[in-house]
Amino acid sequence: MTIKQLLVMYLITLAVFFLIDMVWLGVVAKGFYRRHLGSMLSPNVNWTAAILFYLLFIVGLLVFAIRPALVGGEPLKALFLGALLGLISYATYDLSNLATLKDWPLVVTIVDLVWGTVLGGAVSFVSAVLGRGLLKL
């Protein structure tokens, strides 16, 4: 893949990621985190940290899941590799919190691990399919 193709894939993946994750955060899990984390939540989101995570996570999906799937001509490979990276990424955060923070809810860890897996797999697969069609790979 050329640098231009990688940049196009990054933008595709960024759009797919935000569409899917905003549905999760804005609709599906809207009250979930407030209900289970309550006073642990900051009244203001640290957007710099949140955006930095998202941008880096998308790089990870592109490098470790989407690109290998596109190069191999196997979009389903993106689903499985993306799901694995999503699980590992979300597990790093949630299992560390479960291990070190007082009163960190197990249910939040479980839900986040499932969500990270679904998110990573779905974003990678949809991005690979879109990219394959748009870039004629």
SSE pattern:
HHHHH
Q: What is the arithmetic mean of pLDDT? A: 94
* Largest sheet geometry: none
Identify the overall geometry.
elongated
Amino-to-carboxy terminus distance: 9 Å
Q: Looking at the chains present, what oligomeric state does this protein adopt?
A: single chain
Give the count of structural domains.
1
Q: Bin the helical content.
A: over 70%
Low-confidence stretches: none
Radius of gyration: 16 Å
Q: What does this entry look like structurally?
A:
Helix 3 (47-72) runs antiparallel to helix 4 and helix 3 crosses helix 5. The longest helix is centred in the last third of the chain and has 30 residues, at 106-135. By secondary structure, this protein is mainly alpha-helical. It has helices spanning 3-28, 32-37, 47-72, 75-100, 106-135. It is built from five helices and no strands. Helix content is 83%, strand content 0%.
Which helices and strands appear, and what pairs or packs with what?
Layout: H1 3-28, H2 32-37, H3 47-72, H4 75-100, H5 106-135
Helix pairs in contact: 1-3, 1-5, 3-4, 3-5, 4-5
Summed up, what is this model?
The chain has 137 residues and is mainly alpha-helical. The chain has helices spanning 3-28, 32-37, 47-72, 75-100, 106-135.
Attribute tags:
5 helices, mainly alpha
